[in-house]
Write a structure and sequence with these properties.
Blueprint: E1 16-19, E2 43-50, E3 58-62, H1 63-68, H2 72-79, E4 82-86, H3 91-94, H4 100-110, E5 113-120, E6 122-124, E7 131-133, E8 139-142, H5 147-161, E9 167-170, E10 177-181, E11 185-189, E12 199-205, E13 219-225
Antiparallel strand pairs: 1-12, 2-10, 2-12, 3-9, 3-11, 4-5, 4-8, 5-13, 6-7
Length: about 230
């Protein structure tokens, strides 16, 4: 599955090069890959190419375990919530220490086309029937709630996703390959390796449109190319 906005490695159809020196490799935010589209990837595959001598681990969270650990009243609330996911967000607020190269990559590449998709906060896994929390850094707000209320509730639910009991941490070595179910996980690339070089390559498998517990399907509302800046 090609990335919606970022070009693949030359000579491949869909392999994405995540290079820390070129602004695209420091994914130090909790996220599920590409949830700003409706049928986001069901599996992701990551291979370590250039790995720092120290640092650069990846942490994964089991979002089904996160859902199951919610108290009953929070489960009931989550079951009835929907969220707007988008690749257009306040990058400076999220990554205040981002380099100029990273900011340029976000503005010119990652958001070259703007997507906005409505997903259930709780999706039902199409193969296991298990429920999991569908959140992550692409969430902009909860449907029907103010930005302020959305942020507060998001933090409550996301705290269960990032609880250590629901996570596993991987120390990379060059040549390692990780494969995960992108429908039931979030992950975070630990940005603790300074100016050391880190390169990983990712491929994803076409996904399915999430379904809520009441049978409704996610939908992409906005898909628009960003206007190009005019030459002076």
């Amino acid at each position: 599955m090609p990335h919606p906005t970022q070009g693949p490695v030359a000579g491949t159809a869909s392999i994405l090069n995540l290079d820390s020196s070129r602004g695209g490799g420091r994914a130090d935010q909790w996220h599920t890959d590409v949830t700003f589209v409706d049928a986001y990837p069901k599996f992701s595959v990551l291979r370590g190419v250039v790995i720092p001598a120290a640092g650069g681990d990846t942490i994964w969270s089991n979002t089904h375990a996160a859902y199951e650990s919610l108290p009953a009243p929070l489960k009931l609330l989550a079951d009835n919530l929907w969220a707007i996911h988008s690749n257009a967000y306040d990058y400076a607020a999220v990554r205040p220490r981002a380099t100029d190269a990273e900011k340029k990559h976000f503005e010119e590449v990652f958001t070259s086309t703007i997507y906005e998709t409505e997903h259930p906060v709780v999706r039902v896994h199409p193969e296991t029937g298990e429920r999991s929390l569908l959140l992550g850094n692409f969430v902009q707000r909860l449907v029907g709630l103010s930005k302020s209320d959305s942020a507060k509730l998001y933090e409550v639910f996301q705290s269960y996703v990032t609880a250590p009991e629901n996570t596993v941490r991987w120390r990379w070595r060059a040549g390692d390959v990780a494969i995960w179910d992108n429908r039931a996980t979030q992950h975070y690339a630990v940005n603790d390796y300074g100016d050391q070089h880190r390169v990983v390559r990712r491929a994803t498998v076409d996904g399915d449109v999430p379904v809520s517990i009441d049978g409704r399907r996610s939908v992409t509302h906005v898909k628009a190319a960003k206007p190009q800046a005019k030459a002076a």
